[in-house]
Amino acid sequence: MTAGPLVVLVGPMGVGKSTVGALVAERLGCAYRDTDDDIVAEQGRTIADIFVDEGEPAFRAIEKSAVHKALAEHDGVLALGGGSILDADTRALLAGHRVVYLSMDVEEAVQRTGLNAARPLLAVNPRRQWRELMEARRHLYTEVARAVVPTDGRTPEEVAQAVLDALELKEA
To answer: Rounded CA gap, 154 and 94, in Å?
Structure first.
């Protein structure tokens, strides 16, 4: 086991990484960190604005840097942006960590994201785009994960407990 986060959460946008991550951190008595929040704080603008102003490749470079920094610095629960696993170097770095893939089906995703315009990758035909994103990413989430925890029809508290159970971690 390499140094770094106690738990790393990956999965698609809207799956509940931030909510579940904060609950898991609370139960483990450790700090919670979200790389999307790091990016917004560092850049002084929203992720949607970065996408619009600079494009996805520029955002992915910023994201890669934020994820690598967080993996090196943070020792609590870490949530990664939905597309962070697209980068091969990031996937390689995740190999030694307790990574949990939070999964959900498209109907749950539509309900949770509310087809939100703030999600730049879902701006046009969100259902189809979400399916296409998942077809491209699902195997990458699975590749980096030590455990897969379905979130469909579960409360955040139930998902948090399932994460702890999957990793055999005990509450503080």
So the answer is: 26
CA pair distance 63, 66, nearest whole angstrom = 5
CB atoms within 10 A of CB 46: 14
Radius of gyration of the chain (CA): 15
| CA angle (122, 123, 124) in 5-degree steps | 100
Distance CA 95, CA 138 (A): 16
Please give the sequence-ordered ranges of beta strands (E in DSSP) within 38-132, or none if there are none.
77-79, 99-103
At residue 39, φ and ψ (nearest 5 deg) are -65, -45
pLDDT of residue 1: 45
Helix then strand then coil, in percent of the chain rounded to 5, is 60, 10, 30
Strand partners, 147: 100
Using alpha carbons, select from 18, 50, 23, 61 the residue that is nearest to residue 37: 18
How far, in whole angstroms, is CA 143 from its chain's centroid?
A: 14
Cβ atoms 20, 102 nearer than 8 A: yes
Give the pLDDT of residue 98: 95
Contact 102, 89 (CB under 8 A): no
**Residue ranges for the chain with pLDDT beneath 50:** 1, 117
